Amino acid sequence: MTYCIAISLDKGLVLTSDSRTNAGIDQVSTYSKMFRFSTKADRCIAILSAGNLATTQCVIEQLNRDLREDNETSLNTTHYLSDTADYVGDVLSQRIKRYSEDQQSGFSPDATLLMAGQIKGQPPQAFLIYPQGNHITTSRETPYLQIGESKYGKPVLDRFLTMKTSLTDAATCSLISMDSTMKSNVSVGPPIEVLIYETDSLAFKHHYRFDTEDAFLINLRREWGNKLNQAFKEMPRIPESFSTDSAAYE
């Protein structure tokens, strides 16, 4: 399983991903799900992946090959990020279709991607690209996108993120969201990667990788748990005089 987050704010982007691809009694496999590309100086693009590992690796290789061979269509040739998302979606859907033609019973080649970045002269954006190749983007009301095991980490994002949130606070929020997911699902796990992009910098300058025993990650988990426990203890309690009589609900 996987959990990845892309946050798009006024001040830039925050991308967060786990690295666990398989969790079982006797085997845990880890692969980075965050990919940064060597593009022209007028753009900066990164992709997060969830789903079939073979599919995502082939898609990333095709994108890099198109860059190396200076093909007519590549991450370097699009004029808008929405066009870039269309191109990446085409590569993804074609690869899935190719594998689907030869699939055996129970095999699914599907994958989902988060693409984020900026092209000079345009605002930074994030897109969720579906296996069919179509995509959606963020909004001012919902400035984040998720793929993979999204349900456990969603509440904290809904409560604290706005377009005005600072990049540092957004990164902290994403790590708390990731920790909440890891707490409830062991198939999501470290190393955790965080990429922070500042609007108009056109460079990924801030990349962090947190292993299982990383002191910062451990402290964040402990402090968040302590604060939640304290908040719970301070919550109003049902009055002792509260009636359980059915008439009280009429």
Folded structure, characterized:
The structure is a single chain. The chain is an alpha+beta fold and about 250 residues long. The chain has a single domain (about 5-235), classed as Glutamine Phosphoribosylpyrophosphate, subunit 1, domain 1, CATH 3.60.20.10. It is about 30% helix and about 25% strand. The chain is built from five helices and twelve strands. The strands form three sheets. It has a five-stranded antiparallel β-sheet with strand order 10-1-2-11-12, covered by helices on one side. A five-stranded antiparallel β-sheet has the order 5-6-7-8-9. A hairpin with a 6-residue loop joins strand 5 and strand 6 (about 45-50). Helix 1 packs across helix 2 and helix 3 (about 155-160) packs antiparallel against helix 4 (about 165-185).
List the helices and strands and how they pair.
Elements: E1 3-9, E2 12-17, E3 20-23, E4 28-30, E5 34-36, E6 43-51, H1 53-68, H2 81-100, E7 111-119, E8 125-129, E9 135-137, E10 144-148, H3 154-160, H4 167-184, E11 192-198, E12 206-210, H5 215-233
Antiparallel strand pairs: 1-2, 1-10, 2-11, 3-4, 5-6, 6-7, 7-8, 8-9, 11-12
Shape: globular
Domains (count): 1
Second CATH tier, the architecture: 4-Layer Sandwich
Helix and strand run = EEEEEEHHEEEEHHEEH
How many beta-strand elements?
12
At the fourth CATH level, what is the homologous superfamily?
Aminohydrolase, N-terminal nucleophile (Ntn) domain
